[in-house]
Amino acid sequence: MADIDVILASSSPRRAELLRQIGVRFAIHPANIDESQYPGEAVEIYVQRMAREKAQTVAQKALANDLPVLGADTTVVLDKRIFPKPADKTEAIATLRALSGRSHRVLSAIAVVAEDRTDFRLSETSVRFRDIKEQEYERYWSTGEAQGKAGAYAIQGLGAVFVEGITGSYSGVVGLPLMQTFELFERFNIACWNAR
């Protein structure tokens, strides 16, 4: 791993692409942990715990070979309710119906674990959806994009047509807030802007 500066504890192709965008040399080792929310756990605490536990899990498995590990978690929230990756079509359409014509929050947490140090950042973005037309729910589901996405949409893909506006970090909605990631990497001397 001579040409690697950090381990990404995620299998998300979107996070990998965002790291490439800022010139980070990384390897991928998904954490595969239980992502259940504790009863009564605040959303902000939950998303930070997930990011931290993902990074710590990979670091403890000795997969990192003494390299820093980056964990991340992104959660879509409306009225204090988390909208996770939909289990099926019914759940995806119900999620999009709930988000239609309203503003929701996207919380994206990142954590870096290196040796005996752990640090993290939290990004919060407000995303406003236009009113989604009835026939659009089925059509969007049929594209396959809603599957595996928190909130049942991808802002960087076809789901962008639902977005009336955002306040905050676009990359945080995609899955990795790049400004906060850069800040955290500087604290751990993880190189960015490498030639691609």
Question: What does this protein look like?
Answer:
The protein has 196 residues and is an alpha/beta fold. The chain has a single domain (6-187), classed as Alpha-Beta Complex (Maf protein), CATH 3.90.950.10. 32% of the residues lie in helices and 25% in strands. The protein has helices at residues 13-21, 43-60, 89-99, 134-142, 170-174, 178-187, and strands at 6-8, 26-28, 69-78, 81-83, 103-114, 117-129, 163-167. The longest helix has 18 residues, at 43-60. It starts with 5 loop residues before the first strand and ends in a 9-residue tail after the last helix. The mean pLDDT is 94.
Strand-residue fraction?
25-35%
Order of helices and strands: EHEHEEHEEHEHH
Number of helices: 6
Helix/sheet category: alpha/beta
Q: First CA to last CA: what distance?
A: 17 Å
Could you give a short account of the major beta sheet?
7 strands, mixed
How is the CATH topology named? Maf protein
* Uncertain residue ranges: none
Please report the first level of CATH classification, the CATH class: Alpha Beta
- Overall form: globular
Query: What is the residue-averaged pLDDT?
Result: 94
DSSP helix fraction = 25-40%
Instruction: List how many beta strands DSSP finds.
Output: 7
When the domains are counted, the total is 1
CATH architecture title: Alpha-Beta Complex
Radius of gyration: 17 Å
List the helices and strands and how they pair.
Layout: E1 6-8, H1 13-21, E2 26-28, H2 43-60, E3 69-78, E4 81-83, H3 89-99, E5 103-114, E6 117-129, H4 134-142, E7 163-167, H5 170-174, H6 178-187
Parallel strand pairs: 1-2, 1-3
Antiparallel strand pairs: 3-4, 3-5, 5-6, 6-7
